[in-house]
Amino acid sequence: MFFKSRVSREYTRRKNNSRWTAKEVEILVQGVSKFGVGRWALLKQQFFETSIRTSVNLKVKYISSALHYEVNSFLDASG
Q1: What distance lies between CA 73 and its chain's CA centroid?
Q2: SS3 of residue 10 by DSSP
Q3: Cα-based distances in Å from 23 to 10, 48, 75
Q4: Are 35 and 48 in contact (CB under 8 A)?
Q5: The pLDDT value given to residue 29
Q6: CA dihedral (64, 67, 68, 69) positive or negative
Q7: Over the stretch 2-45, which tens digit does the pLDDT of each residue have?
Q8: Residues 27, 57 contacting (CB under 8 angstroms)
Q9: Where does residue 33 rank: exposed (0-12), middle (13-18), buried (19+ CB within 10 A)?
Q10: Closest by Cα among 2, 22, 20, 23 to 12
Q11: Is 76 helix (H, G, I), strand (E, B) or coil?
Q12: Sign of the CA dihedral with 66 first, then 59, 57, and 43 last
């Protein structure tokens, strides 16, 4: 996927476009259980130190996963 760069008119690739593994998601959930929501930098230092994931990546993945879970739970309960 290509995006226009604000610095120049060239097209650039996204920095981190790799998919999350099941193990990464499991570690993310364990980290949030230990440190709580909002402690993304600390979670990055403790659990994702050598990973390509940034603290913002962790936050976005957790929030989108939680939202997905809530929507599916609602749909299962109503239908």
Answers
A1: 20
A2: coil
A3: 36, 12, 26
A4: no
A5: 93
A6: positive
A7: 555 565 556 666 666 689 999 999 999 999 999 999 999 999 99
A8: no
A9: exposed
A10: 2
A11: helix
A12: negative
- Count of all residues that appear for the chain in the document: 79
Tokens (6 digits) for 60:
């976005």
Burial class (CB in 10 A: 0-12, 13-18, 19+), 35: middle
How do residues 40-78 score in pLDDT, each as one tens digit? Answer: 999 999 999 999 999 999 999 999 988 777 666 666 777
What residues contact residue 47 under an 8 Å CB cut-off, 6+ apart? Answer: 27, 28, 30, 31
CA 44 to chain centroid, in Å, comes to 11
